[in-house]
TrEMBL record:
Pfam families: Amidohydro_1 (PF01979). Keywords: Hydrolase. InterPro entries: Amidohydro-rel, Metal-dep_hydrolase_composite, Metal_Hydrolase, MTA/SAH_deaminase. The lineage of its organism: Bacteria, Pseudomonadati, Pseudomonadota, Alphaproteobacteria, Hyphomicrobiales. It comes from the Bacteria. Belongs to the metallo-dependent hydrolases superfamily. ATZ/TRZ family. This is Amidohydrolase. The keyword Hydrolase applies. Residues 56-437 form the Amidohydrolase-related domain.
């Protein structure tokens, strides 16, 4: 048996009903928290971490990210989602990265996450053109070697691109439309068989630290047959059903245009709303949508920074919480955010809600933001009984921060310091599943210098090739701009929170 004692720290448990920090100790045995209290005697042979002057708290949870974007950090700006997708996820000329770079790309995300206090992430890994078990295995390998906890998808879509967008068939020229329509999607049966192989070979690796999740890209990008089949599979295996819904105003137009109702109502009519559903973004939801979401017990991954960078809007987090929707925080991919730091998302998520209305009662407190970054994020991963708070019996996923750093001086309120002042630079020690993966800001699981040097040497040719791919896809930009222009011209602003959507044309 292995034991670890954190002694004399300020402890912020984030357990429900507990607020503020208190001085105490925490004993970990065989990867699980055994007890939290004061004056705990260390068992024979226990490793001791001196916590004096440190804050002990749960590791942060990144509820939504995309490792496939990691090498595109700092590459794009001033692009709405529908245009940005042309370059970050190009239609033409895109090829999978070499296996070694696939591994390094994922490892870099894991390293940055751990160094900024993230102990668990949900990676909506998406790679065109197909689904390859060995390549998905490299993603699992990278997270395994880094020592982080992760839910990992092999995201899927099977609807032609133009059929998932409003106005597209009347805007995009026939020759380009024919090229886009040449895409051959995987069949529902073939993808289900692939997923079962993943569950057999990869799911539950590393003592259960690495899990597979089902991630149909979005309801408008997947057939009802695929959406329904994956929902049933997610329930059978007890894993999240992770999808993108109503991220942009274009998507707010898409539901009524394609289905005669909002995308949330469409999902409800398919019988897909439920506690295992995780909705990334949820920006353009109406009050009627939110009521359905709350009744069904869905969870939302709120990506405040990405939503702002892509001009998508501000999610109605107060209304979601008041309706009983569980909310976690996500960075989204490093191409639409440029950092894996959840501390950055916490600050932005707290501040931006203050711009949604004049009544301070509708703004979010530091406590609510911290809850979303820890236990709320764990709920989105269906792991709130495993991680997200410091409680006896839970996995020992925690971080220690230096309270002598400038982020905590002079000291006032621990929760407000964490949300408004901290940026991850005070994180000194990171423990996942009872194993110390970072000590004194140095990762113990990988050779950081060697990894960064290899990336610096091997990635530039890949980016040069990607620039040529971007040039091939630039031909589509004027048409995506027109789709974006028409959608944003639709007057749905007042109806956004009012309930029913206004009448739309039906294709």
């Amino acid at each position: 048996m292995t034991a670890l004692l954190v002694r004399g720290a300020q402890i912020l448990t984030m357990a429900r009903g507990q607020t503020g920090a208190f001085a105490g100790d925490m004993l970990v045995r065989d990867g699980r928290i055994e007890t939290i209290g004061q004056g705990i005697e260390p068992p024979d042979g226990a490793e001791i971490i001196e916590g004096r002057g440190k804050l002990l708290m749960p590791g942060l949870v990144n509820a939504h990210t995309h490792s496939s974007e990691t090498f595109f950090r700092g590459r794009y700006e001033k692009m709405p989602l529908e245009i940005w997708l042309l370059y970050a996820y190009p239609f033409f000329g895109n090829r999978p990265v070499p296996p070694r770079l696939l591994y390094l790309r994922t490892l870099l995300l894991a390293m940055e996450s751990l160094k900024s206090g993230v102990t668990m992430l949900s990676d909506d890994f998406f790679e065109t053109p197909g689904h390859d078990l060995d390549r998905l295995g490299l993603v699992f390998d990278a997270y395994d070697h880094a020592g982080i906890r992760a839910n990992i998808s092999s995201a899927v879509m099977n609807v032609p691109a133009l059929d998932a967008l409003p106005y597209a068939r009347e805007i995009v020229p026939r020759d380009l439309a024919a090229r886009l329509d040449a895409f051959t999607p995987i069949s529902v049966q073939a993808y289900l068989e692939f997923c079962e192989r993943v569950f057999s070979r990869l799911h539950g690796r590393a003592n259960g630290r690495l899990r597979f999740m089902l991630a149909p890209s979005a309801p408008q990008r997947c057939t009802p047959e695929l959406m329904t089949a994956l929902h049933a599979l997610s329930r059978r295996h007890g894993v999240p059903y992770h999808t993108h819904v109503l991220e942009t105003k274009t998507q707010a137009v898409t539901g009524p245009d394609l289905y005669g109702r909002s995308l949330i109502h469409y999902l409800a009519d398919l019988g897909l709303l439920g506690p295992n559903m995780v909705i990334a973004h949820s920006v353009w939801v109406s009050d009627a949508d939110i009521a359905l979401m709350g009744e069904a017990g869905v969870a939302v991954a709120h990506n405040a920074v990405s939503n702002l960078k892509l001009g998508a809007g501000i999610a109605p987090v107060r209304r979601l919480l008041d309706a009983g929707v569980a909310v976690g925080l996500g960075t989204d991919g490093l191409s639409s955010n440029d950092t894996a730091r959840i501390f950055d998302v916490m600050r932005v998520a707290a501040l931006v809600q203050s711009a949604t209305g004049p009544d301070p009662k509708d703004w979010l407190s530091a406590r609510e933001i911290l809850q979303a970054a820890t236990l709320g994020g764990a709920r989105t991963a269906l792991l709130d009984r495993v991680t997200g708070s410091l409680e006896a019996g839970k996995a020992a996923d925690f971080i220690l921060l230096d309270m002598g750093s400038t982020s905590f001086l002079p000291f006032n309120d621990v929760e407000k310091h964490l949300v408004y002042a901290e940026n991850g630079g005070s994180v000194e020690t990171v423990v996942v599943d009872g194993k110390i993966v970072m000590r004194d800001r140095k990762l113990l699981t990988v050779d950081e210098d060697a990894v960064l040097a290899e990336i610096a040497e091997t990635v530039p040719p890949l980016l040069a090739e990607h620039a040529r791919v971007e040039a091939q896809n630039r031909v589509l930009e004027p048409f995506m701009q027109e789709i974006h222009r028409r959608a944003t011209a639709q007057d749905i602003g007042m109806q956004r929170y009012a309930g029913d959507m206004p009448p739309w044309r039906h294709g």
